[in-house]
Queue: 2 jobs
Job 1
Amino acid sequence: MTDLSSLTAADIRDGIAAKEFSAREVADAAFARVEALEPQVRAFNQLTPELAEKAANRIDAMVAAGEKLPPLAGVPAGIKDNMNLVGTRTTCSSRILADYQSAYDCTAVRRLLDAGALPVGKCNLDEFAFGSSTENSAFGPTRNPWDLERVPGGSSGGSAACVAAGMATVSLGSDTGGSIRQPGALTGTVAMKPTYGRVSRYGCVAFASSLDQIGPFTRSVRDSALVLNAIAGKDDMDATSVTQSVPDFTAGLDDGVKGLRVGIVRDMLELEGLAPEIKASVEAAAARFAALGAEVDDVDIPAARHGLSAYYIIGPAEASSNLARFDGIRYGHRVDDASDVLDLYMRSRAEGFGPESIRRIMLGTYVLSAGYYDAYYGQAQKARTLIIEDFAKAFESYDVLLTPTTPEVAFKIGEKSTDPLAMYLSDVFTIPLNLAGLPGVSMPCGFSRGLPVGLQLIGRHFDEATMLRAAAALEADLALDMTPATVRSLKA
Ligand code: GLN
């Protein structure tokens, strides 16, 4: 019998449609994998076997009735625990929301489940998505299935780890400054941030509303396109979701890259602190594109070097405003012995928020304060405009841009947790895309010391299709085996 946990979403749906196996069997295989690996990996804050079983039964009833199956029928899915799903808690991995029950469904989650996916559970994250390692979770870190002593990246570390480990076939994460792509790189998964506005943010707890975007983790580029098909498109509940037509992102995936103009972002490759093996892997990937018929050349995005600084002003500014609602009254943990309302606010928040959340709220409040607004927030917005312009100029000559996803492979748990600046540097290549609203996908492009290396492909606004076509061509060419050590040991 085939190992159902290793199949792609497309294979699962087709196998169920052909009655090779049932959705129930797929769910059972996913939870068997959870039983074997979750005690070590700890990707989930909550498991949802009853919801998965209900969803699987619906699919199996459709098969029995001879109905046409939806595109993600029977596909086990992890959901980042900052997205609401009725019947689950939405904790954001924070003590302040530890008991919060979802009151409604996040649109992207609803669409994923309507497309037939089986919800396996809610995935661990850095508290409120602040972080790059999942160590900022109030419920403990998630571990990287490639090496359990290392981080899976973050903030969507649980979503990345569950897909890498085969506990889910696909998952949803959110990406404000790299939180899908960076953990994707560190766990050897395909991890996409769509164009800002492509996917509704409704029901995903806001971090920085002008930067946040939901997207998929998968084990293949085709699956990434399939999930995007399911979740993309206008939603009346999110005014920033756009009416732009949604193409079938799987169409043309196999058309290759002949004549495609691919730009290597050279000034990013020269950045100090980039591991030499990662630079070499990215250059090797670029050479493969050339061999496959693309026109490959160097391009610079000079303003991107201001990205990290601008992001650590704009991100915390928006976060400090978004997190004001967690005050013990409207939402969240409340002390029960407050002497007055101010005491209630202050102590509920001090007890509920972890150190990184407190740091972001303080940074954000500071840069928005009357005396500093222009010097910090105003300047950061100007830098953001320059970044948007540099990318627009590059896309006059190129169809897809390439950078590393991260400066390093997965680091050890604890290695950077006391040094916020070192941690922030993890996202130096991913953040400029959020500032510019551009789509990006991280895909495995090789290994360094046995750990996955990620390549970031960047597309034009709303041209995820071309970006994914390039990714699919490279994926087929490299044909890497992305089975992590924990999964190999299960099979041995
Ligand atoms: N790691 C970045 C941060 O800490 C990005 C987080 C994210 O994309 N949610 O802000």
Job 2
Amino acid sequence: MRVEVLGVGFDNVTMDEAVARGMELLSSGRGEYVVTPNPEIVMCCAEREDVKSAVNGASMVLPDGIGVIYGAKILGTPLREKVPGADWALRLFGEMAKAGKSVFLLGAKPGVAEAAGKRLAGEFPGLVIAGVNDGYFKDDGAVIEKINAASPDLLLVCLGAPKQELWMAENREKLNVRLMAGLGGSLDVYAGVVQRAPERWQKMNLEWLYRLMKEPRRIGRMMKLPQFMICVLGEKLKGK
Ligand code: UDP
């Protein structure tokens, strides 16, 4: 059962359950995809029907940030825990490595996916890096051909939101992959180009503040968070 927050249905799963479900989809799925919306993406869904249908059409919708967790709680339908997409994928890589499964890394600036692949292969011996491609391609067809030739179990699609969600929904039928996951800036993190907040900040749910301090130009995007909270309170007052 999904928990609805402003029109987006989130899977009410723990991290362990989300990893187990990911492994199931990796053995039996065909062109499935996982999305990890934060409040900014939820607000985008409220404004754009195409994005909302791409997000809700995913096989798994994971609550990426603390904002979504607060929103669900305020609406009286709490989610069990936040499941940040970048952490979920690392847990999944651990399981995939044991099973000798493969991943294709798509997205980020030229050179970043290669660097991420090298680091992930070192960290998860047994995980097969089936291929990489940067996220600034013009010709979808050529990239789809390259991915299909590599035929990976998992495809990470890190093109930023909502581009990655729309891309996965549009191309799922053409791709010979079991599962995809739209993971925003995760390749930058895996490559070491961008640092995650220290664990203490993450535990205090202040990762957003750390990110804002490191990249002050994100302030415009982050203003979606108060808008999100106002909409959630509006829904609550309407008794929905
Ligand atoms: N990106 C891309 N192709 C594009 C636009 C963006 O590959 O056409 C990449 C960008 O280089 C970055 C990621 O998408 O690696 C988006 O990162 P951001 O931090 O904005 O994502 P978030 O995690 O906040 O969703």
